[in-house]
Please model this.
Amino acid sequence: MRTIGHFIGGKTVAGGSGRTAPVFDPNTGEVQAEVALASKAEVEAAIQNAAEAQPAWAATNPQRRARVMMKFVQLLNDHMDELAELLASEHGKTVPDAKGDVQRGLEVVEFSIGIPHLLKGEYTDGAGPGIDMYSMRQPLGVVAGITPFNFPAMIPMWKFAPAIASGNAFILKPSERDPSVPMRLAELMMEAGLPAGILNVVNGDKEAVDTVLTDPRVMALGFVGSSSIAEYVYSTAAAHGKRAQCFGGAKNHMIIMPDADMEQAANALIGAGYGSAGERCMAISVAVPVGEQTAETLMKTLVPKVQALKIGLSSDHEADYGPMVTKAALDRVKGYVDLGVEEGAELVVDGRDFKMQGYENGFFMGGCLFNRVTPDMRIYKEEIFGPVLSVVRAQDYEEAVRLPNDHEYGNGVAIFTRDGDAARDFAARVNVGMVGVNVPIPVPLAYYTFGGWKRSGFGDLNQHGPDAVRFYTKTKTVTSRWPSGIKDSAEFVIPTMG
Ligand code: NAD
Model:
């Protein structure tokens, strides 16, 4: 059986805790590897390694650090097929979708090549008599990232690329469900010229996370995962004096106005609702047609498309989506579909019994579509994270806007309409972090920032874009006066420039 250890001090090391977790092949349901779960002592060794390596990296000029990122981009492109196949084999998303996962991470690495520009400080010449004032951005030291299973390439890169380009050393604790790609990314960063100890990968579970959260040498951490863990990580990190940004779950609505192009809206719902088996934090899980006529037309267009979804192996490039990540995830999602039926929602398409021929033990699930879901139902309130779409009917636009505004999650939202006034009003009033207008998955590009509101995000500042540099650096402001400007008597009042 293949074993996956850790990446510490520039090399792969075997796990020494004696604790492991299975890594499944979601297509067959078989265990394909065992991943080590780090002990407190192993995580502390990684932190120590990072702390020793970081000062020299911070002293390396920003342009040289950027060149490592440039070379890493080239290596990611060279290894795109290998990374995507490895990713798909542990996660279950299709290889073309896995390429998108790598690509969206790669784009943040490209953004990080330009970080020297964002690290520049400010300067005021002659702020007072003989006085100059300037600010500088300095790295924090050792920082960490704790990442989820659903984007095992993209989200680790969103975290470590800006942090490392800004001069920090990084501890990555990826998901124990698909750890191989993060390990491979660390190897490629070494090949790109990163010094040993600047990027460490510790595989593990709560024990590893708790060590990162409480160790005083870790100055900041970025988390992405479910909301209850995000809240726990945020409050524990804050209690230990750390800077933390923790992104959580989602329930993303798509409003379909009566004037929308119904074919376009239905296609958007199919891709955004069922792509990657719905295991995306930006997946659309609630469709809100406005008005009965819109709802009827939408259902007529949507139902055959859900029935025709092509579910396949993760290696099948023609499949719409592959298996779910684990049996536990599959059972959880099926449990939500059972619950929806009990709660009185109309299950129009039932994918619970789907079996992939020849792969009956794989974690496959057919697409499910609920009609007439209401806001009091648990299947509306809670994140399902599977190939399940709920249709909630709104009588008018105001009722439709209230739905995402009143929901406890606020990650992404979309409106489909031909009416510019409605789109503009919606973008301004909706209480959600990322908004799409005729775009179902509005994931901002690398040079903008990504972040949800309400229970989808705890802490301050977003991921990637300029916020990432602000998050992983601290500002120092220097006031300097050279002897020619210094008076030879003591001053007892607060200095002013007046
Ligand atoms: P998860 O919360 O189970 O795990 C996330 C990370 O936390 C993993 O590294 C895991 O090992 C660790 N963890 C799990 N339990 C822990 C505990 N008790 N104490 C400390 N650490 C713990 O999430 P997941 O299932 O891997 O990912 C799916 C979730 O992530 C969904 O809720 C999805 O919406 C969310 N997500 C959010 C975003 C975003 O940007 N908002 C992006 C992707 C995924």
Summary: The longest helix spans residues 40-59. Residues 146-151, 173, 175-176, 205-206, 209, 224-226, 229, 247-250, 281, 383, 385, 411, 452, 456 surround nicotinamide-adenine-dinucleotide (CB under 6 Å).
